[in-house]
Amino acid sequence: VLRHASEQNEAGMKRKVECEVNAVVLGNLALTGLKLGAQIIAQGFLAKRSLKSTQLVMHINDIKSM
User: Fold this and answer.
1) What pLDDT is recorded for position 9?
2) Alpha-carbon distances of 64 from 35, 39, 43, 53, 56, rounded to whole Å
3) In terms of pTM, does the model score above 0.70?
4) CA geometry: angle at 17 spanning 13 and 21, to 5°?
5) Which sign does the torsion angle of CA 15, 40, 64, 48 carry?
6) Tell me, what's the pLDDT at 52?
7) For range 13-34, the mean pLDDT
8) 1 Cβ partners below 8 Å, 6+ apart?
9) Calpha distance 29→18 (Å, rounded)
10) Among 9, 24, 34, 40, whose Cα sits 20 to 30 Å from the Cα of 64?
11) Quick check: 22 pLDDT over 90?
12) What class is the 2-65 domain?
């Protein structure tokens, strides 16, 4: 599970954004050995959990430690 927290501008006003999203990491990237609670920058794409699901999962293609 990835947790995101930031402050974004929307219609000229600051908005606090927080969310959690399930994530999938495959291949050699899955062996990076991140510790629980580590702060990272993750890049990838969002996709449905399955063909019939409406839930989103982030498929991570790149991870960088902060």
Assistant:
1) 97
2) 13, 9, 9, 29, 22
3) yes
4) 155
5) negative
6) 94
7) 89
8) 20, 21, 22, 23
9) 25
10) 9
11) yes
12) mainly beta
Q: What does the pLDDT read at residue 14?
A: 98
For all residues of the chain together, what is the average pLDDT? 91
Nearest to 41 by CA among 23, 17, 66, 60: 66
User: How is residue 3 written in tokens?
Assistant: 């947790």
């974004």: which residue's tokens? 8
> Phi and psi (nearest 5°) for 14?
-80, 140
**Calpha distance 50→17 (Å, rounded):** 26
The H or E element spanning position 9 is: strand 2-10
Structure tokens at 1: 């599970």
